[in-house]
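User: For a benchmark we're assembling, each entry needs the component sequences followed by a predicted structure for the full assembly. Here are entry 17's components. Please fill in the structure.
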Amino acid sequence: MRFLRPLAAAILFAAPALAPAAALAKSYKHITIATEGAYAPYNMHAPDGKLIGFEIDLGNDLCARMKITCTWVAQDWDSMIPALNAGKFDAIMDGMSITPARLKVIAFSRNYSQSPTVFLVKKGGPLATMPDTGLAVSLDDKTAADKAFAAIKPILKGKTVGVQVATIQLNLLNKYLKDTVTIRSYKTTQEHDLDLAAGRIDAALASTAYFVSTLGRPGGNAFVEVGPRFTGGLLGQGTGVGMRKSDPELKAMFDKAINAAIKDGTIKKLSLKWFKVDISPAS
Amino acid sequence: MAVASGEQGVTSGSATEAAKPVVIEAIGVEKKFGANKVLRGVSLAAREGEVVSIVGASGSGKSTLLRCFPLLEIPDAGDVAIAGEVLALVERGGRRLPRDIGQVQRVRSELGFVFQSFNLWPHRTVLGNVVEAPVHVQKRPRAECVAEAEALLEKVGLADKRDAWPAQLSGGQQQRAAIARALAMRPKALLFDEPTSALDPELVGEVLRVIRGLAEEGRTMLIVTHEMSFAAEVSTRAVFLDAGIVGEEGPPEQIFRHPQTDRCRAFVSRHLARG
Amino acid sequence: MMAELAFLFGVTRKLLGGLPLTIELVTLSVATGALLAVAMALARSASRIAAVLVSFYVFVFRGSPLLLQMFFIYYGLGQFAAVRDSFAWPALRDPTFCAILSLALNTAAYTSEILRGGLASVPSGAIEAGRAVGMSRVMLLRRVVLPLAIRQALPAYSNELIAMVKSTSLASIVTLMEVSGIAYALVSETYRAIEVLSCAGAIYLVLIVLLTRGVWLVETWLSPAGSRA
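Assistant: Structure for entry 17:
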């Protein structure tokens, strides 16, 4: 019985350390933002190892508007949300789409970019003639969505499609094309690009903003985007900053900053710089 | 009397023994390890039914000579012959090698070699050790080999140990099992390389008893040993090996009781416990 | 509480879906690797050049992480047009083949060293006794050397087998959905890392306990009580 008192004391001391660290901080002077560093041009590693990209530039700009300092850390995509909730960092900016499933576990700022999902295939390959190339299809519109999938299912039958694990693109394949194609999940987007080049998969499915980097790399002219450009539905409402639900004040700060950045054209400017197209939200 | 290298020492033999065929023969065998010339021209013949004991100081080359007969050591010069068949050796790349390894393996299977450290196969039972070579090397039917093995184990006093593992046996028991293993090959001759040197004194007797029994059966045997009194008692001929050559050779009476050469006399008086 | 148990139950059921692939990866890579290792052990004693080549092979495959080796065989080789146009492509295209190949090459390196130790431990007296009764080199190997070497190497080899079971979890980096691959996917979907990974860990634990027991049975069968020197 003699160990009970020291044990109780130890637990009492440990308790604050066990609670999520950020729950104690209500006024934010400094935050840590996590990104992958492997999702060009949203975020990537420069040759010297520094994190650069559209989101790093935008994130720094937003922090300046919020009058706080921020540091960046790199984190693997597939464990980002658990790590956020465990208190390892305060925000995620990694091309992460706002989806109902994710909204159950974390909070999002308003969206700061929007980019449709599209298939990337080899030029002259079996899928290069996929119909409806360039057609904008919102998954919120059931009739249009069903029509679009019916049109592409014949050519996709029996093919292999690569996608990054735990993404909205994987969810799209699972929901609409599970019985049509063989799905291969990769840890990073570069890996499905490599396998597409090697011919192990017939198509890769990702956001068109990501494919800007694939098409811009040496050898990128071997690929072409085909088929409908999907938005909405389970694909979410564009990318937003991920935060813990216990930080509503931080969310409010980000929302305000993003609105300002859209209004004065900063996001559009950065988007053109990194993507050569404007992926800023409409409003 | 000094004996020059290559020359045979003092020998004598009986007329009746000369009639039996020669089973084991060494002809001018030389062997060196590195710079050390261990055998400097040894010639030796054992006829059918003879029990030849080979004695000498440590390093005199006794074990090396014995190991030359089944070509466990390959002589640098000279030849060995078993039952009149010379084990042909050829020079290849600066080394002497058997010309026909098949011949060597066949001849080996016709000799029974008993090692100083028994060398039983640890992963086979006693019975397994005894039947291993008859079944797999001589390709005899298993049932026949087992029956014969059990009789041999009975003979060496290990009938109740047929299913024991070597690790469970005493040194004396292991050596007797090794002797049974050698006998199972129905060998033309038995070669014993210091069979009791690795045994505790109290276990030596049981092994010597078995060897004596085999000698009394009239088997052809070559025994390298330190057990002088045993050698004196059991052998029909003795050879004193001295620094790589035959120092003296003759009946045990001569070698052990009335050596003709100084060196043999000096050796025997040092090692034999009685006058 | 019930919801928790239902969740864990559901997770375990999904994870067990990857078990056949895990078992396939282990058995095929271990079998291939073992054969390779025996071939290398024999080659080593046959010729000096072979011995040098084998040493180099062991050096490379023990000296680099399995993760890198698997990555290299799958993604690295796939980048060369020469490889893609070769006869080997239909096999190298397939992630399962690449994973098994990589695991096999890796375990062969470690196993050949374990075997080398086992071979060195065979008592020279036992070998000499075999020669003395007229056994040929092949028979000596088959009846004396390899059986004794394997008995000696078995405890060390059981370590290697356990390591191989765990190494199969790397196959998820080449898109294979074995137990770990499914576990990572579940973590990303449910965000409940501790529960999912505990269930996955439990599956590996059970697998390894069964493996250890099997090896123990083989050990006692090969070396019955009393037969150990």
